[in-house]
Amino acid sequence: MSTFLARLEEVNSPRIGLGCMNLSHGYGNPLPEGDALRALEAAFDMGYRHFDTATLYGATANERLVGKALAGKRERLLLASKGGMVIDPALGKKVIDGRPDTLRRQCEASLARLGTDHLDIYYLHRWDPQVAIEESVGALGRLVEEGKIRGIGLSEVSATTLRRACAEHPIAAVQSEYSLWTRNPEIALIDACREAAIPLVAFSPLGRGFLAGAVVDRADLTDNDMRLQMPRFSADNLPHNLTRLDALRAEAKALGVSTAQLTLAWLGTKGDDIVPIPGSRSVTHMRENLAAEALQLDAACVARLDAMMTHEQIAGDRYTEAQQSEVDTETFAGG
């Protein structure tokens, strides 16, 4: 068993974890701190033990929030953060930097914000193409040797890059977008992960809220919501994609569950080494998502879901051309 999955077992964690990003970043205005703290405390109380954050989120605000909410609980959870992609306050924009000195500095700053002396997983949030992956991973390996991180993670990398990284140092987890409407990891990454017994941590397993029915009109999104810039949520593509939800809603209704629960249960059929980290600002939705772990799907249902939102049936790529240039993941032909 991988060290990552072993840690989940050690802290008695459900396979479903909590992505903390949208409390502070990405989907409109951040929650007021008091509300966000109460949501994180409620998440722990209801059973979440895997919490995922990053230096990027809220320009470090999310790490401070998670550190404050989980103070005194550190030994009872798996704590993950990410570096190598941050909001540079001097430039006021996102910067990808995978140089060894940068990664060390960012990791140590994350530890301070989170109030801990180590992270269970520290991800390279994005591979910096100006720095060999071996160089960045080697630097993270030295942090493992020093006990500052227990395992190295990679985010949004291709199978080829993962194999290069593994030759430099063991990789504990790989994070990639994976959901009913984003099957890119099935092209090559899942196979590469399994070759090296590395779990895949599936971020945005609810399609950035789309598969939970949370986005039905662009007008409902605030001006600073990142989804407004994503092709699948464009004025041209969103109406078509909404029609693809009809079959999912019908399937969920027949089972007496929500579309979010059905989507997470579908991911659960893809292997014990797939670890979803849905995010939510709602305590009710956090509880609903966690309950999906107990939902069992029969083979016929899984087959219907497999065929429901293939790449050919969804309008728009998951990223713009500029966003895609920042990641190393495989894409389907034509996008």
TrEMBL record:
Keyword field contains Glycosyltransferase: no
Gene3D superfamilies (UniProt xref): NADP-dependent oxidoreductase domain
GO molecular function, one term: oxidoreductase activity
Superkingdom of the organism of origin: Bacteria
InterPro entries reported for this sequence: AKR, Aldo-Keto_reductase, NAD(P)_OxRdtase_dom_sf, NADP_OxRdtase_dom
Start and end residues of each NADP-dependent oxidoreductase domain: 15-308
UniProt KW keywords: Oxidoreductase
Pfam families (UniProt xref): Aldo_ket_red (PF00248)
A cellular component annotation (GO) from this entry: cytoplasm
Entry-linked PANTHER family: AFLATOXIN B1 ALDEHYDE REDUCTASE, ALDO-KETO REDUCTASE YAKC [NADP(+)]
Protein name according to UniProt: Predicted oxidoreductase
Higher taxonomy: Bacteria, Pseudomonadati, Pseudomonadota, Gammaproteobacteria, Oceanospirillales
